[in-house]
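Hi there, hope your week has been kind to you so far. Would you mind checking whether the tokens look sensible for this chain? I owe you a coffee for this, so here goes:
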Amino acid sequence: MGGGLELMGSGAIGWGIDVEGRPMRHCPWPVTGEGRYREPSPKEIESVYGISGRAVAATLRYFEACGGDTPALVEKLNRHAPKGPYPASPVDLLDDSRWYTNEYYFYLQMFCKKAVGRYDWHVGEDGHDQLPVYHKIWEKGFLDHLPYGGPDRDSTFSMLCAIFKGYGARGVNFSDLYEWADLLCRHQGAVSFRDEIVKMPNTWLSSEFWYYLIEFVKIVTNENSVFAIVEACFDYYDLEGFSFAPDGMLMHVLQYMLNKSTRAYHVEIDHDRRRHRARFRLSRHPAWDPAKTGPYYAACTLSGDQAILAAYRLVVQKFFRLDLPPRISGVSGMGTGEVAFTLQWDRRVVSVPFLQLLGANALMVAVYLGAGALAGVSAPFLFLAGVFAVNFTIALFRVYRHYANRIAILKDHLERVLADSRERVEQAQTMSAELLEEKKQLVAERDETARRLRITEVYTRKSLVEMIAAGNDPTRIPPQDREIGVLFADIREFTRLSENRDPIRIVELLNDFFDRMNRCIIGENGEIDKLIGDGIMALFNDPDACLRAAVSMCRELRTFNGSGPFSGDRALSIGIGINWGHVVAGNIGSQSKMDYTVIGDIVNAASRLEALTRHYGVPLIISEEFRKRLCGNYAVAFLDMVQVKGKKAPVAIYEVYDHLGPDAVACKQEVAGDLERAFALYRRGAFDEAEAIYGRVRGQVAVTANPCLDDTLATLDFYIRRCRDLGRRRDEQVLSEWDGVFHFAIK
């Protein structure tokens, strides 16, 4: 195998079905006598070459879109392909009209995963299902459900066990399949498929794992038709014990048996005894997990339905001891999980011992003709009585032998079942101690892994921890374009506030502050990107959630100031700036030290908005682009048109004051009209008139003596000073032009 379970990056474990070093068994495509590709017949497509060129071409295109090296991939495929067929080129693999074996497509998928460095890589992972018809479950990789038993159990292993026995008797080597199965299950359980499960035909499997195994059987046997696979191995499916039931009860026994052997389907059978036919209807079992209806499961459902159709047909033949399998008609719903079909068979003629009866009756006639002394009236009656007695005795003996034979078959079957049960009990007893010990170790490892991940989450991003927990390698994630909200928050003048205080006490207070602020962010599904000194950078996918988090932070700060040592002149104040737009999310750094973060113009702009809160005296400023994205109703007021340092285009900025008390909000809304008129005069350059309105509004606000309006007073003082300064500069002819946009020369 070449090490199917391998380490992928630092601390992240991934698995893969590594096919390096193993040559393909089968010809990947049909060839002519000269070794060139030829178009397969419909029968060949149905039975062997079951993968369309559409699937191969789409896989290769997506591999290239992910940055894959196509020439290296094709060279590796040609190196593993059987000698003889001409080497494929990238042009050949992009030809939609070609057909391939399951095995060749399997190798293509595995080499793509290996080249990309991610064994969870699959076509359509970006949300587009490029291969809606041709998906195979192993394209996706990873088991989502428990392979054996538990709440995910859907079907018994008995049919697959018969397939392994049947093809094994023909010399097919399943060692690769067993190894692939163990690699699939290694992260889901410690039980060995090769050493334990294969020997236990009545084990329950999840349908997902059942689909994997059927697809692997196709690869190993070079057979595309599941119908043909089941038919070829059905003789190894043990049903002798059930055949002892009376004919009238056989269909009831069959329906009971089928419903007991699957939790994926509910089976109903309508048996018409006079017409010798039965209508089968299968629907999803009430316990069926709806998560198992995605594209990668749904496409494999067709394989499961084909197996059911073949198996049920042969079960009926065996139950009724028919010479030929029943005919199939009225098939509907194949591949949907809601299947119906009809089985029709010829009337079974009861076996009659013609030779024995003929010999016995010939002997009676000879005796009658040779016994001339038996003349008389009663002779014919004696002859008929003798004939009847002999024929009845022979028929009775025949019936006795028939049922004695069936009883012997039943006893033999029961003995084998009991012997098999005893063997499984012995195996279970042998395994139990080992499994208990392994379970203890697995639980300990799981708890230790969870503890380490919790610690890691404290020091890094939650999304990275979730990637690692899922088995992915964050260091291999390519840069991605995202549209998000960026929030910057920073404590104002923290150095001055912490003067003459014990440093340890300052750290404790900072931790308390960050704990409160972080809860506000995480409570709205935000993600903390980093802590920068006494500041926070957070990311949000929902603009309304982002603003709610910012408002909660402002309110929580008042609670913090009221309960801690920071109050009065030394009360903490924060500035929050929020922007919205496109960023690039990805790894920044080197292989030895890396940071997964976001970069982009809107990140810098959000930082500039946070810095502006110091000048305007307000705790929360948002951009015009962010305001447009909001869906809810918020207390928002236009603040200014500014050009921040490092930006050429002016931007509109807004103040959000939902965090204030009801009285303060009402007061700000009452003076909103005056402030709009003042700002209109300010933008036209009428600085004196604007200053007069700002001064009058300031007096009106100051009269309320509401501490929540201190920020508003600071904003009004800022505009009054600016109007005076701009008016003075214009009088001194320093301000030659005015476009209503204030240019900040500092951050």
Observations:
- The longest strand covers residues 574-589.
- Confidence is low (pLDDT under 50) at residues 1-15.
- The two ends are 59 Å apart (CA to CA).
